[in-house]
Amino acid sequence: MRQVVLDTETTGLEVEQQHRIIEIGCVELVNRRLTGRSFHRYLNPERDIDEGALEVHGLSREQLAREPKFADIHAEFLEFVRDAELIIHNAPFDVAFLNAELARLPGGLSLAGCQILDTLPLARQMHPGQRNSLDALCKRYSVDNSQRDYHGALLDARLLAEVYLAMTGGQATLVLSAETDTIRLRTRLEMPDPDLGAVRIAVIEASAEELAAHERLLAILDKASAGKTVWRAL
Known about the structure:
Elements: E1 2-10, E2 21-30, E3 33-42, H1 51-57, H2 61-64, H3 70-81, E4 85-88, H4 91-103, E5 116-118, H5 119-126, H6 134-140, H7 153-167, H8 169-190, H9 208-224, H10 230-233
Parallel strand pairs: 1-4, 4-5
Antiparallel strand pairs: 1-2, 2-3
């Protein structure tokens, strides 16, 4: 199963006010394992950046002036996420901005056909009444986010991938257990039957002191259970 963990940074919070994407970061998971493949681009938004957004990600319009526009990289981006389930924290935000960027291009492109897993409602379901921001989840699942002085799309995608794997770790355990059982079964089928006649079983008898200590314990249990000690019944 192929999944892509995705995050974006933007010039502001309102897609309706023509705010734009300035950074896209993606990391790839295949069968719940990070493959090392990623997609990362800074983008020229062709507009000013809100002061509040600048405080979050630290990217200024001047820094991004020479970066490509979304139209220049959209084909490469769509190819990277093709046929993958997208894992996004607070997915409606990122998807709205991505669809707005795609809608500006000819051809009526969108992410409408993509399967999306939103980790925010998943976290809220697992941890009701608690903070479920990415920072809070990193702390809860012992994911090191010490390098997160500013929000960054690629860094946040990598952190979210670790958080997602930790949150859904029971699935990994089940997969590992199934694989281990399969390996054991194959080994059992391929190995010859052991020569039981050649096996020597060592018998170690209890010492007198150990038997006396055992009897003292049984006496205590007899008293506590009104003579109904299970060991004596056996």
